[in-house]
Specification:
The chain is an all-alpha fold. It contains 9 helices and no strands. α8 packs across α9. The longest helix is centred in the middle third of the chain and has 25 residues.
Length: 171
Amino acid sequence: MGSIQSDHRQMDRLIKTSSEDQGLLLRYFSRLPLSIRLELEKNKKKIFHSMREKYAQINYDVLSYAAHILSIKSHYSFEKKFSTKQFQNMSLDEIRDLSMLQLQKEDEKIYLSKNGKREKLLHYWSVVKLYRSRKPKPISFEKIEEKLEKHYSFKVSHNTINKLWRELEKN
């Protein structure tokens, strides 16, 4: 494992992006739809392998992180380019790419709006697991419902908790 200063120098040489901009890109990545995040993971692997050949002496973890940032950066630039371009000045291929990007974002919004409670419940899942793992007798889903509402101001039915429990915890 290299020194912190050495890792920073290598990172600067590879991605040419400040720590602040890296944070911005990572926040941007976290807000992208899952389908786009998965595409970026595939792109990251391609970038990583091309970098691995070129920079074999650099630490694997540094290269992996750099590939991740570069993958996000390329998508961010791609999206920013389209947002500043006027529609009438775009080629048909660019219009198609922009339409696909918008479609993916809309699909994610529809999914999240339909599954909003489920997504929020996943946020509190560690609490649910803690209550269900109590020994000798686990706390009932009805009691968990009450505790989530009382302590976390999150109203969700015990049936929703039970259904998600069966989906996630009971293989």
